[in-house]
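Dear colleague,

Following up on Tuesday's group meeting, I ran the structure prediction for the two-component complex that the binding team flagged. I've pasted the input sequences exactly as they went in, so you can double-check that nothing got truncated or mislabelled along the way. The structure tokens for the whole assembly follow below. Feel free to forward this to whoever is handling the docking comparison.

Inputs:
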Amino acid sequence: MLRFFAPFIAPVVGALFVLALACAFFSHRDPTALQPADKYHREPNEVHYSFEGPLGRYDRQQLQRGFQVYKEVCSACHSMRLVAFRDLEEIGFTKPEVKAIAKNWATETPSINPDTGEPATRKPIPSDFIPGPYANETAARAANNNALPPDMSLLAKAREGGPAYIESLVTGYEDVPASLKKEFPDFQVPTGLHFNPYFANLNIAMPPPLTSDGQVTYSDGTVATRKQMATDVSAFLMWAAEPKLENRHRTGIAVVLYLLIATGLVFAAYRNIWAGKKH
Amino acid sequence: MSFPWAEHYAPKNPFMRWMDEKLPLPRLVYNAVGAGYPVPRNLNYFWNFGVLAGAALVIQILTGVILAMHYAANGLVAFDSVEHIMRDVNSGWLIRYAHMNGASFFFIVVYLHIFRGLYYGSYKAPREMVWLLGVVIFLLMMATAFMGYVLPWGQMSYWGAQVITGFFSAIPVVGEPVRQWLLGGFAPDNAALNRFFSLHYLLPFVIAAVIVLHIWSLHIPGSNNPTGVEVKGPQDTVPFHPYYTAKDGFGLGVFLICYSLLLFFAPNALGHPDNYIAANPLSTPAHIVPEWYFWPFYAILRAFTFDFLWVPAKLWGVVAMFSAIALLFFLPWIDRSPIRSARYRPMYRIAFWVLVADVLLLGFIGKSPAVEPYVRIGQFAAAYYFAHFLIIIPLIAWAEKPLPLPNSITESVLGEGSDDAALGHPAA
């Protein structure tokens, strides 16, 4: 009996799955209306950075300029809690410079009063992580129309498109296009939000951060156009997210070269061993 | 357990003779992966992937043990401890990226290993047990990889854990209590993170143990080969060492080059950016997607959107997803064709390549958001997946007229009526 039915078990089970999927395939779908973001969302600009490619390295001057933009513009709202002041030595600041940057930072590091044990703050020192602008998430939301400015330590790796996305976003604010208004008459930028085609749903809580050329004054003489500031700060954020990139590239070149030579030798050994053995 | 002409272990110096009497470990190695294991002479490069999978497991265990020295399995600090490894631990970035991409390469070589088995009929008698243990290893790998992906406690870690453990809630009546019991709470939290870490450290050693069984059961009939014709005599085989140790060494080199290129020059290419955002139970990502190696199964899960036969679609999806792997356990008996290699199975060969395309398509659908036309394409591709294994394979086994098989491995290598001596090489 079982012997007779055995060959049919698999096809019957298979037919069940296929039928369930066929029903799903032919089941009715509610037509989905085209959303403004489907059509007006834009992919990040093409931006070229010095750290791209297997031989890519950071441009120290650019990172320092980017740090300046972060310090003078972004850090008013965005924390960078995984980066310590001491790390800034890696982008070319000297020890005394790092000490001064820490000491003069706009916000202080949480601490306790050594006499009373009461919560207090103190001036940061190089070994401190960079203190954020807000005491906690509630304070951050309260100051930003209930939106939370994301921490910037990993931002360049935490967004599709990476640094180019950040560059595009901060320079991408514009008026709602007339064609969009015409096509979607109901489209409204909610109060407190700003139209930005690089942002996933087109409306972003962050007001335009880079408002005019010359918003920061670069000490190395580079002209601080909006585009320049955006490129510099996005490069700096890539460093903040991936500080070991140069080390990785250098190690990678050495490892791959070694492996190419070793594999070549093993290939020669393999051919030698199999010589005369047809296979 | 081997062919009668296998070379015998003969310890050459007194110490090795002494060792062989007390603990014949060198003998075991000699017979398992040394000159004492005769292997068909005609294996092609697709036979490298078993050894490569073993190498990947070793890489994962070595890097994983080091990571565990610096990682903290606590919801409050797990994310930051990974960043501590990336930024402040000496060469921590290397160990962490090696582990992260090592998981992907483990799956790449295992998928190639599995498809090699499907093409050359390695799952058929007398190697059913090898195949069954292989499917067990694959399941253990999936569990290990899933739990490992949760550990960095990023957004995709958290929401992936939420979705995967949610499968259990599809079970009628007991589903929800089972889910809570597995998680140790109503949602993924510290309890879940801790047990996932514990199991993630345990399972690789279980995998290693099952690999021992996998190789043991393989050595009883010996390796399959591209013709699928069984070994008939000494002229059909070569000793594993040095012939295949050399060939596997070359394969390992190529594998390490590919792995290094990804590890050093695009370490985040296969990951999801959202996992660089710390886990936040109050903020659901726009699209929850698993790691790439789960995409085909994720597509099957999501393809079931209809309450067929009054069974909820969600339950169908979960059952189908597990069945998609479980059916592999039955494959040696579903495929009744006595011919192993697809070289001599004209119809099966076509079906095999269509299956490869179908699985790649499922992978693409699993990655894509659940909107049209992806949903319908996914439903079609999922239906084909089940049809392939459960309907098309039995039909082909019944209807196919196989091509003539070579009389032996040697004949297929050297041509009819010839042997080594005829070509001027003295037979070994």
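Chain A has a mean pLDDT of 95.

Cheers,
M.
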